Amino acid sequence: MNYIIGAFKPPCDIFVTFSDERSRKQVAVKKDNGKTTMVPAFQSLETIAGEVSIAPVPGKRIEHMGVKIELLGQIELYFDRGNFYDFTSLVRELDVPGEIYERKTYPFEFSTVEMPYESYNGTNVRLRYILKVTIGRNYVGNIVESRDFCVRNYSPLPSINNSIKMEVGIEDCLHIEFEYSKSK
């Protein structure tokens, strides 16, 4: 019976770790299943580096047509589930076609990545950044593992921030004046 259960498990475990994960600020992100997880936060034009570790099930080997990692920026509309609009896509080849017999670790680096938008998770739309590792295989399905991360772009406060006055009303009858302390 255990043989049948094991037939549907992937033949390996894939782990994606960032090089400065322990010292980097963590942000809470809500997943599809409703649970909250902590993911590392990055800024635009930062270098994203780390390691991908592939560990086959003991006694098994993985034949593959190459291993690649992708950095993707995606927008997903909730009424159109499953269709993503990719606005950022960078790919690095980690390994040429071959076989993996034992645990193998591949370093990766995406230097000065432009991430123009901040991560967002709303009621109708989700904007997210992910690292997606794909082990390409011939006759059976590809093995895919993804890891989310968050992007927060900070900008300095504007130097000139004058107040705004606005007047609304009907002549000789009603007059309302609004004043906002900041224009930005």
From TrEMBL:
<dbReference type="GO" id="GO:0006886">
    <property type="term" value="P:intracellular protein transport"/>
</dbReference>
<comment type="similarity">
    <text>Belongs to the VPS26 family.</text>
</comment>
<protein>
    <recommendedName>
        <fullName>Vacuolar protein sorting-associated protein 26</fullName>
    </recommendedName>
</protein>
<dbReference type="Pfam" id="PF03643">
    <property type="entry name" value="Vps26"/>
</dbReference>
<dbReference type="InterPro" id="IPR028934">
    <property type="entry name" value="Vps26-related"/>
</dbReference>
<dbReference type="InterPro" id="IPR014752">
    <property type="entry name" value="Arrestin-like_C"/>
</dbReference>
